[in-house]
Design goal:
Largest sheet: none
Number of strands: 0
Shape: globular
Number of helices: 7
Radius of gyration: 17 Å
Order of helices and strands: HHHHHHH
Oligomer: single chain
């Protein structure tokens, strides 16, 4: 068995950043198919946003393949933040704000990060960061009139997801330490 060391943790974080960025770059463009049917009036803007995200994810992938491996947590944080920001903007460009289902994409980002080798405190910070991007975008950058029902429902669902994912991450981290 390998010893659980800080050097090994960094290698695992770099690999996680590399895998997450490549998967995101490959699969995010498929969301354009959904955009075409749900928001045809915003398809060009959404496609442009997806394109920017793919370029950003590929940039992070190449950074992790080069000698720039000292900041894997920052890479994952910036990628998750960028994706969450775009999902929030898309919900607002469709003029639905909190009523938009694009907030589910933020939960997908949170689920992806469960498998990354962050410690629990860093993981909770990451989820809180992602959630704050959603709230800031919805409330201050693109305020769209909303009904209180959607605001409460979506935010409770996101907070519940954060709590469940934090428990899952804690469990996975303890298993990782036991197996190391």
């Amino acid at each position: 068995m390998q010893e659980f060391s800080p050097k090994r943790l960094i290698i695992d974080q770099v690999n996680a950043a590399k895998i997450c960025s490549l998967i995101a770059a490959i699969f995010l463009p498929f969301s354009s198919i959904l955009d075409y049917y749900i928001y045809p009036q915003c398809f060009v803007e959404f496609f442009f946003l997806w394109f920017i995200l793919v370029v950003w994810c590929l940039f992070i992938f190449f950074l992790t393949c080069l000698k720039m491996k000292q900041y894997p947590k920052l890479y994952i944080l910036s990628m998750g933040g960028a994706i969450s920001f775009v999902f929030s903007i898309m919900g607002n460009l469709g003029n639905e704000g909190y009523q938009s289902d694009y907030y589910i994409g933020i939960i997908e980002v949170m689920f992806t990060v469960v498998m990354t080798p962050f410690n629990t405190r860093e993981f909770i910070f990451f989820l809180t960061f992602i959630y704050s991007i959603y709230l800031t975008t919805m409330h201050f950058i693109y305020p769209v009139p909303y009904t209180q029902r959607y605001f409460v429902e979506n935010n409770i669902f996101l907070i519940e997801s954060i709590m469940m994912l934090s428990c899952a991450h804690y469990y996975i981290s303890s298993l990782r330490k036991k197996l190391a």
